Fold:
Amino acid sequence: MMSHYYRRYPTGDMSCILDDFLYVGNFKTGKDWQSLARVGITHVLNCATEWTHRVPKDCPVRYYQSLGLRDVPSESVSRAFQQAFAILETVRAKGERILVHCMAGVSRAPTIVIAYLMAHHGMTLKQAYVHVKSRRQIVNPNQGFRLQLIALEAHLNPTMLFATMQPQDWEKRYTRNKQ
Structure:
């Protein structure tokens, strides 16, 4: 099963979502202790159920947590939002760095990060999705996760009449603005 994910989404590197703080990757980056140390990652949040890691004693990763989410449309990813937000805010407040990963870095981890950007950085769903997608082109939350992100946007912005993401917006390619 792991090789299927890696063949389909062959990026093994981390994508920086928020400079010097928030990174998204796949299971390979989640266990590459040398790369994590090189980037200064001190915390790892694993969104997958298929893969867990044992952190070596000499590793700079001080905190490793697994959310145990399945990548299926029926999974309630929103049940993990508050736990993930608390972890991310703790890391941010300390000025440290965190990697959020799942098997491919395509659906679960990006969904958690998009939700976080909406809830704690005041972004609309479209702004958060475009930002994450521009930093990690392979982002593609499954249909059930998309619906939960739309519901989160409605919850965060009760006066909003329409969701900011339309069906065609999920399929567009977004690129990072180079300054």
